Amino acid sequence: MQLQEMSWPTVASASKDTPVVVPIAAVEQHGLHLPVFTDSLLLSEVARRAAETLGDRAIWAPLLWLGNSHHHLDFPGTLSAAPRTYLDLLGDLIDNLVTHGFRRIVLLNGHGGNIVPSQQAVFEARQRYRERADLLLLAATYWQVGRGPNAEEPSLAQTEMGHACEWETSMILRLAPRLAGDLAALEPVPQAASFAPASRGWITRERTEPGHIGDPRRATAEKGEALFRIFSRDVATFLERVITWDGRSWEG
What we know:
The protein has helices at residues 8-13, 38-54, 83-99, 115-128, 166-175, 204-207, 221-244; strands at residues 20-24, 59-60, 104-109, 136-141. By secondary structure, the chain is of the alpha/beta class. The protein has one domain: 3-Layer(aba) Sandwich (Rossmann fold), CATH 3.40.50.10310. It has a 4-stranded parallel sheet, sandwiched between helices. Helix 2 crosses helix 5, helix 2 crosses helix 7 (221-244) and helix 5 (166-175) packs across helix 7. The longest helix has 24 residues, at 221-244.
């Protein structure tokens, strides 16, 4: 069910144990070859396919295209909410849904920069509603809820999400190939983290001049279809756990 297509009486009459999924993405640079709407396009497709699988057992809020992308602001076209502004925005969305009576709320993320604030938003919300033992507040990123696509798709060279990389470029080639630019002239940019296992504060320009991280030259539309199939199935499987949660147990 799509929240934006429901009247308020329909929302009011929905079971409050129905999970409400809020897709959160971004508008930001994706290298020389992909559109700034890449994260939003990809998450929308993953969500669309997962929603088809789940039918009316979940309610899907409209995609939130504004994300936490300040680390990309050196690249024109990036639109970003400051980290604390974004955290407050996510917290308000959670509060809205709790006010309307919903007890199972999932922030479904499609952008790396949203991972930390979405986790913090659900953590802070749980503290605000600490007397509510019936609430399930979750932050999940679509490429992290399963085993990872390499276990099923051996043609993939990349083993984790990059940026405008083999994975994302492949999915754009499958979804909207007219939006993909020339890949031949691109050079790979290492994905290795700096000072691991520590988490370093960084801006994108420190890591990559063209804007991508990874090797988009390896991308194909066939890989993109495999990625969409795996990621959307994994999201649907994860949400099945939310749907069948008994309302009190620690594990779903």
